[in-house]
Write the structure tokens for this entry.
Amino acid sequence: MFITFEGIEGSGKSTQARRLADHLNRYTIPLTFTLEPGGTFIGKSIRKILLDSQNTHLSPLAELLLYTADRAQHVKEVIEPALKQGKLVVCDRFMDATEVYQGYVRGQDMELITILNEKATYGIQPDITFLLDCPVEVGLERAIKRNKTDNQEGQDRFEREEKAFHEAVRKGYLSLAGKNSDRFIIVDATLQQDPLEERIFEEIRPFIEDLSIYRNKRS
């Protein structure tokens, strides 16, 4: 099973993706936790370019190609091997982020994005995608606080975008989720971390209960 997390900056998706992985680790379920961009050694270098706040001159097309290059390496090196080994994969952002950020918001050609995503994912798509939705004001306040706390202020190119940009991202995600309701699960990201974690796990529980290995809960 392949589970992805999406959302605007500061929605808490990274925290909840890690929390779900930690939660599932309490059971005898082999899993891989990963993220985009930066889920591989090569990807870490791409991530620095993409998130560096000094790279204000990075063109939308270059941004798109960097994200898909990161994804192609990530899928071949991490995601595909893990799935072939029968592992459950939890990923912080994946192909939907590109469709929203670079397509819906940056205005890059959607047909091109579809082609690039198909190539970069090698046909692999998430089984479930959690969209952590919250008002832009809430997300940005959290993101700014997080960057200061974690000393990531130089890696905040997207957080520095205008509010209208983030509103468009949120709108894009909600639109994409509506078109793919069979895969997307929208959760209220204004909830506190613990109840939000429980809410997400309750959505996953019916799927993992089908795994015989799940029944052998670790003591």
The beta strands are 2-7, 31-35, 88-92, 128-133, 184-188. The two ends are 24 Å apart (CA to CA). The chain has a mean pLDDT of 91.
